[in-house]
Amino acid sequence: MVTNVADLEPAEIVQRYKSLADIERGFRVLKSEIEIAPVYHRLPERIRAHASICFMALILYRVMRQRLKAAGHSASPETALAKLRRIQRQSVAINQGVPVSGISNIHREQADLLAAMNIRKPVPDAQLSLL
Questions:
Q1: Which of 4, 49, 78, 90 sits at 20 to 30 Å (Cα–Cα) from 36?
Q2: Could you give the number of structural domains in the chain?
């Protein structure tokens, strides 16, 4: 390995190189699995906001992957998100009446994914019965 930094020990150089590879993997995940496309900004605050969103998305992806792996679950973060995306919260109001809300059925596979990632199952808001 060749470097222009003379004051580093060989172990430090290798560690920095491995960190670089990890950063590159992160960008690959952002572009492929998370599907963040290039966005062109000119204003500094928008550039910072975009970079922050990308960073948070990558952190969430890695936390999901780590929790699924620690729980011994075989799903990837992409698969988990595809299955969990089917859970929906609804709110319906008829003739300007009080809205009634609910949550779609949570199937066993979805409940297992939530449990593996240590996420509480969504519950319906407390509401009065219609009957």
A1: 90
A2: 2
Query: How many whole angstroms separate alpha carbon 3 and alpha carbon 5?
Result: 5
Please check whether residues 66 and 26 belong to one and the same domain.
yes
Q: What is the DSSP string of 70-87?
A: HTT----HHHHHHHHTT-
CA atoms of 85 and 82, how far apart (whole Å): 5
Q: Comparing C-alpha atoms, which of 102, 60, 52 is closest to residue 80?
A: 60
The pTM of this model reads: 0.65
pLDDT tens-digit series, residues 103-122: 889 999 999 999 999 999 98
Q: How far apart are CA 49 and CA 28, in angstroms?
A: 20
Which of 70, 86, 110 is the C-terminal boundary of a domain? 70
Q: How far apart are CA 5 and CA 8, in angstroms?
A: 6
107: which residues sit within 8 A by CB, 6+ positions away? Answer: none
Q: Are residues 41 and 84 in the same domain?
A: no
